[in-house]
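Problem: given the chain below (273 residues), write out its structure.
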Amino acid sequence: MIETISENLVNLKLEFRRIYSGTSHIQEILPLSESDIFPIPQNDLDSLHYFLQNNSIYYNTFEEKINDVNYMIYEGDINKYWLNSIGHESSTQPFSPTWMLTAYIITSIAKILNYKEVLDIGSGDGRIAYCGKILGLNAYGIEIDNMLVDLQNYISKKTVIDFNPICSDAVTFDYDSLKLTEPAFFIGGLPQMGGDVLASNIISNLNNNLKEKTCMVLTGSYSEKYSVNDTKDGGWRKLIDDTGLKIIQSNSLPTVWSFDQTTETPYIFTKFP
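Solution.
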């Protein structure tokens, strides 16, 4: 079912991109109710909307019907968060969120693969950790930027869903302190922009017993602005080879930064042998 939902979201993004006439800095679309196209429990859908409704990066909403399904369009601006996020020396990528439904899909995959914890590394506004929490997983949002962590705390308070925002450098954070059992690390940085260094440092800091039970979810890119060599496996091939990671599966899904592109953002699920 999750594969069908993924395909339907990509098709929806293409249609939404075709008909969208707004001028907002960022935009995304979310179904208002459960349907054959998106057979997502209504309580979960409502929680996704509640996150966006209580997120200050969005300033406008309106309804749109596409192929007999009603959607809510969210328009926003991330400039102040983007600018603040690039001021940290060890930051690997400016803040730019995935789509809310994409976050739900990729955390659902982690749950289907039987991982028990979600660690949203470079968590931005915390949406991946939030989705992990509403799916019943233990969740943590690790973010170096204090302004974004303040936003996470605000959303957590308003939604009454504690997805454990933590203001810390993900490279130096003590993951043993979380008593993890079977974690999925979602790396929020493209390899071409320093995400490979971030992932490599986190991997080197994990103890060997935990590694055996760990999933590394790598956010890649097939954008034409990167060279052919850089885009193999979304840009992650070198790190995968160097660390011995094995690819479990890969799903390409919409993100804010891929809205104007013809290709989607690949999320590559890997584990240690």
